[in-house]
Write a structure and sequence with these properties.
Peroxidase, domain 1; 15% strand; alpha+beta
Length: 184
């Protein structure tokens, strides 16, 4: 398995190139939506990830699958970018490239990513309240929420923005209480 640093070094220039293409064609948000769709597809289907990462599968098979997934109605610039990744033998890095593209897009739009883990799915009102709180804390123009559900939290939420973590979960409160009781 490749290291995180090596993966980032490969992903960065390709993500930069994709952003340059998107900016020149005024398609940054459209590419962002496509990137999010591809990422959710890759995360949901490990076989797809393994298919792209397998060096023994012919490039033509990978290209055919990309054309099938993307379809004819897709943006030709993005489709061609994906096909170039196959030609350059970098399609295995698709997930980190797309993640890096989204990070660059957030930077461009002065948007922060807030990873929110909750015990149960959040309502629209709760998501809005978290968004407003994160904007107040970070002074960002916009917030992109990435939500996950973890029933082990019992209740509450954990919000991660960059390296800052706000643990307002019941599990976190119980853990802190336990530490205070054992240290005293």
């Amino acid at each position: 398995m490749t290291s995180q640093v090596a993966t980032a070094e490969v992903a960065q220039p390709y993500a930069q190139a994709l952003l340059s293409i998107a900016q020149s064609k005024n398609l940054t948000e459209e590419f962002g939506e496509d990137a999010r769709t591809f990422l959710s597809l890759l995360r949901a289907d490990k076989q797809l990830q393994n298919f792209f990462g397998n060096p023994f599968i012919q490039s033509e098979s990978k290209k055919a699958l990309i054309k099938q997934i993307v379809g004819e109605g897709a943006n030709p610039y993005l489709r061609n970018f994906l096909l170039v990744l196959v030609d350059k033998r970098r399609i295995a890095f698709l997930e980190p490239i797309l993640q890096q593209y989204l990070a660059l897009l957030r930077q461009l739009n002065q948007t922060v990513l807030a990873e929110v883990t909750s015990a149960i799915p959040l309502t629209e009102a709760q998501q809005q309240a978290i968004t407003e709180k994160v904007i107040a804390i970070t002074k960002a123009r916009q917030v992109e929420l990435e939500t996950k559900v973890d029933s082990e939290l019992i209740g509450g939420v954990i919000i991660k923005v960059g390296s800052q973590v706000i643990d307002a979960s019941i599990r976190g409160q119980l853990r802190r209480l336990s530490l205070r009781l054992t240290s005293g």
